[in-house]
Amino acid sequence: MARDKENKKKNEWLDWIKALLLAFGLAFLVRMFLFAPIIVEGPSMFPTLHDRDQMIVNKLSYTIGEPERFDIVVFHAPTQKDFIKRIIALPGEHVAVEDNTLYINGEEVEEPFLNEQKENLQSYQTLTNDFTLEQLPGNYDVVPEGHVFVLGDNRSNSTDSRMIGVVPMEELVGEASFVYWPFDRIHLIGKGE
Fold first, then answer.
1. Is the same domain home to 64 and 100?
2. 85 in catalytic set
3. Which of 17, 41, 142, 147 has the greatest number of C-beta atoms within 10 Å?
4. How far, in whole angstroms, is CA 159 from its chain's centroid?
5. What string of pLDDT tens digits covers the 193 residues of the chain?
6. Single pTM value for the model
7. Do 106 and 179 reside in the same domain of the chain?
8. Are residues 101 and 18 in the same domain?
9. Do residues 58 and 11 both lie within one domain?
C-alpha cells in the first residue's frame, strides 16, 4: 500500500517534469522558428513606432512568402544589433526621393504613413533629403536580386539603406506587425500605417 502511494507520487513528479520539458521545448521552437519579441530602440521609426515599444516579429512570414513594399521588418544590421525599418524598394527597382516625394522606377509612390509628418513641415524643412540609388553605398542602378531597400519613418533620424546600403534578404529576421507593450499602444500595424 505504502509502495503504491510512493510509486504514484513518483509517477506524478515524472509527469510534471515531462510536461515542463515539453512546454519549454515548444516555447523554444516557437521562439526560434515562428515568433520572437523585439524592443524598438530609438526614434528611427517614429511616429509609427515609439522608442521602447515591444513587438512580436513573425519569423515565418518570409519563409513562406516574399517581402512586400512597406512591410516593417527586423534585420541583422552590419553593427552588433538588429534594426527595424520599412521596406521601400524591392529587387529590380530603382528608388529616388525628390522634394519629399518617393519615386520607384520613375513613378511617384504615396507613403501614407508619412502624411502627418509632411503636413507639419514648415516650408523651409525637408522630411527626406533628395537622393537616388546610384548616390548611395553600392552605387547600384536598381536594387539587386536578393536584396531590399529600407528606410526609417523618421527620415531625418534613421540609419538605413541611405547609409548602410541595401539589405540582403537572408538577413531579414521577419516582419514586425504587432505592438504588445505598452498597453495603451497595443495594435496591429498595417502596411500603409
1. yes
2. yes
3. 147
4. 14
5. 566 666 676 677 777 776 666 665 555 545 455 568 888 888 999 888 999 999 888 888 887 788 999 999 999 887 778 899 999 999 999 999 998 999 999 999 999 988 888 888 776 678 889 999 999 988 899 999 999 999 999 998 999 999 999 999 999 999 988 888 888 888 777 665 5
6. 0.80
7. yes
8. no
9. no
CA-CA distance, 168 to 76, in Å (whole number)?
Answer: 9
Cell numbers at residue 28, please?
523554444
Phi, psi for 180 (deg, rounded to 5):
-115, -5
Identity at 107, one-letter amino acid code: E
Active-site residue, from 85, 158, 161, 177 = 85
* Marked catalytic residue, from 5, 10, 18, 44: 44
Which residue, 183, 173, 186, is CA-closest to 85?
173
Catalytic residue flag (residue 44):
yes
Q: 134: domain range?
A: 40-188
